[in-house]
Amino acid sequence: MQREEERPRERPADHRRRTRRAERHATSEAIHTLEGDDIDAAVPGRSRHDVGHKTSPPPKSAKPGRRDGFKVWKTPFWKRRKAMRADKAKAERLLLTDDE
What we know:
Blueprint: H1 12-32, H2 39-42, H3 76-99
């Protein structure tokens, strides 16, 4: 890992974009000034982007007794569906009690 003062002062995405563009430019220049048939030897290799720190947070561990993943019952559609079904069941119960 790099020290704090050695880290780039830009966002990691901007750093990757800038360095990748510079590598593409160097590759293009190497191809245009190629003297010979071995293109692989003339083209510089791709470097890895090391910005000195992890950009994504570590994965969270699931709490005991909880499901992981998408919870469909928390979506507005599911809540609306559940409420409509409850209203329908309530109306049917009222009709049954009124008939008796």
